[in-house]
Specification:
Layout: E1 4-7, E2 10-12, E3 18-24, E4 33-39, E5 46-51, E6 58-60, E7 68-73, E8 78-83, E9 92-99, E10 116-120
Parallel strand pairs: 2-10
Antiparallel strand pairs: 1-3, 3-8, 4-5, 4-9, 5-6, 7-8, 9-10
Protein backbone atom coordinates (compact mmCIF):
# COMPACT_ATOMS: atom_id res chain seq x y z
CA UNK A 1 0.00 0.00 0.00
CA UNK A 2 1.27 3.45 -0.90
CA UNK A 3 2.50 5.41 2.09
CA UNK A 4 4.28 8.72 2.11
CA UNK A 5 7.08 10.00 4.33
CA UNK A 6 7.42 13.77 4.56
CA UNK A 7 10.65 15.44 5.69
CA UNK A 8 12.52 18.74 5.63
CA UNK A 9 10.47 20.82 8.01
CA UNK A 10 11.89 23.00 10.73
CA UNK A 11 12.02 26.43 12.31
CA UNK A 12 12.76 29.31 9.98
CA UNK A 13 12.58 33.08 10.21
CA UNK A 14 10.09 35.07 8.14
CA UNK A 15 11.43 35.49 4.64
CA UNK A 16 13.42 32.29 4.87
CA UNK A 17 13.29 29.13 2.79
CA UNK A 18 12.77 25.43 3.29
CA UNK A 19 12.67 22.47 0.94
CA UNK A 20 10.30 19.68 1.85
CA UNK A 21 10.52 16.16 0.48
CA UNK A 22 7.82 13.56 0.12
CA UNK A 23 8.99 10.00 -0.52
CA UNK A 24 7.23 6.67 -0.70
CA UNK A 25 7.84 3.39 1.05
CA UNK A 26 9.13 1.97 -2.22
CA UNK A 27 5.80 2.27 -4.05
CA UNK A 28 6.22 3.71 -7.54
CA UNK A 29 4.82 7.24 -7.85
CA UNK A 30 4.84 7.56 -11.60
CA UNK A 31 1.11 6.92 -12.06
CA UNK A 32 -0.11 9.34 -9.41
CA UNK A 33 -0.69 13.02 -9.06
CA UNK A 34 0.69 14.25 -5.74
CA UNK A 35 -0.62 17.08 -3.65
CA UNK A 36 0.82 19.05 -0.76
CA UNK A 37 -1.43 19.85 2.16
CA UNK A 38 -0.99 21.76 5.36
CA UNK A 39 -2.77 22.04 8.65
CA UNK A 40 -2.33 25.27 10.55
CA UNK A 41 -2.90 25.31 14.31
CA UNK A 42 -6.61 25.17 15.03
CA UNK A 43 -7.57 24.77 11.39
CA UNK A 44 -8.48 21.94 9.07
CA UNK A 45 -5.99 20.38 6.71
CA UNK A 46 -6.16 21.93 3.25
CA UNK A 47 -4.55 21.20 -0.08
CA UNK A 48 -2.60 24.00 -1.72
CA UNK A 49 -0.43 22.53 -4.46
CA UNK A 50 -0.52 19.62 -6.87
CA UNK A 51 1.72 18.12 -9.53
CA UNK A 52 0.55 15.75 -12.25
CA UNK A 53 1.97 12.23 -12.65
CA UNK A 54 4.52 13.39 -15.22
CA UNK A 55 5.21 16.83 -13.77
CA UNK A 56 3.59 18.53 -16.73
CA UNK A 57 0.91 20.31 -14.72
CA UNK A 58 1.18 22.13 -11.43
CA UNK A 59 -1.43 23.95 -9.37
CA UNK A 60 -1.02 26.42 -6.54
CA UNK A 61 -3.40 28.12 -4.18
CA UNK A 62 -3.25 31.91 -4.33
CA UNK A 63 -1.78 31.98 -0.82
CA UNK A 64 1.46 30.31 -2.00
CA UNK A 65 1.60 31.19 -5.69
CA UNK A 66 4.89 32.81 -6.61
CA UNK A 67 6.57 31.69 -3.39
CA UNK A 68 6.33 27.89 -3.46
CA UNK A 69 7.37 25.49 -6.23
CA UNK A 70 6.41 21.84 -6.50
CA UNK A 71 8.50 19.35 -8.47
CA UNK A 72 9.02 15.62 -8.69
CA UNK A 73 11.60 12.98 -9.53
CA UNK A 74 9.79 9.78 -10.43
CA UNK A 75 13.08 7.91 -10.59
CA UNK A 76 13.49 8.59 -6.87
CA UNK A 77 9.75 8.29 -6.08
CA UNK A 78 9.98 11.71 -4.48
CA UNK A 79 8.08 14.97 -4.70
CA UNK A 80 9.58 18.23 -3.50
CA UNK A 81 8.21 21.54 -2.28
CA UNK A 82 10.56 24.51 -2.41
CA UNK A 83 9.22 27.20 -0.12
CA UNK A 84 10.63 30.71 -0.35
CA UNK A 85 9.55 33.95 1.25
CA UNK A 86 8.01 32.10 4.18
CA UNK A 87 5.46 33.93 6.30
CA UNK A 88 4.24 33.25 9.84
CA UNK A 89 0.90 32.15 8.37
CA UNK A 90 2.71 29.32 6.57
CA UNK A 91 3.23 27.66 9.95
CA UNK A 92 1.69 24.22 10.19
CA UNK A 93 2.13 20.52 9.61
CA UNK A 94 2.78 19.72 5.97
CA UNK A 95 1.61 16.52 4.34
CA UNK A 96 1.60 14.98 0.91
CA UNK A 97 -0.95 12.63 -0.58
CA UNK A 98 -1.75 10.96 -3.88
CA UNK A 99 -4.63 11.57 -6.21
CA UNK A 100 -5.96 10.57 -9.60
CA UNK A 101 -5.07 13.92 -11.16
CA UNK A 102 -4.64 17.59 -10.37
CA UNK A 103 -8.15 18.13 -11.71
CA UNK A 104 -9.46 16.05 -8.81
CA UNK A 105 -10.83 17.65 -5.68
CA UNK A 106 -8.28 17.60 -2.87
CA UNK A 107 -10.77 15.73 -0.68
CA UNK A 108 -10.26 12.67 -2.87
CA UNK A 109 -6.51 12.52 -2.17
CA UNK A 110 -5.28 9.84 0.20
CA UNK A 111 -2.29 7.93 1.61
CA UNK A 112 -1.20 10.80 3.84
CA UNK A 113 2.04 10.45 5.75
CA UNK A 114 2.78 11.61 9.30
CA UNK A 115 3.62 15.11 8.15
CA UNK A 116 6.51 17.45 8.84
CA UNK A 117 6.28 20.54 11.04
CA UNK A 118 7.08 23.94 9.57
CA UNK A 119 7.32 26.86 11.95
CA UNK A 120 7.91 30.38 10.69
CA UNK A 121 8.80 32.69 13.53
CA UNK A 122 11.34 35.29 14.51
Amino acid sequence: QLQFVESGGGLVQPGGSLRLSCSTNGWALEHYAVGWFRQAPGKEREGFSCISFDGGRTNYADSVKGRFAISRDNGKNTVYLQMNGLLPEDTGVYYCASGASCYSDYVTFNSFGQGTQVTVSS
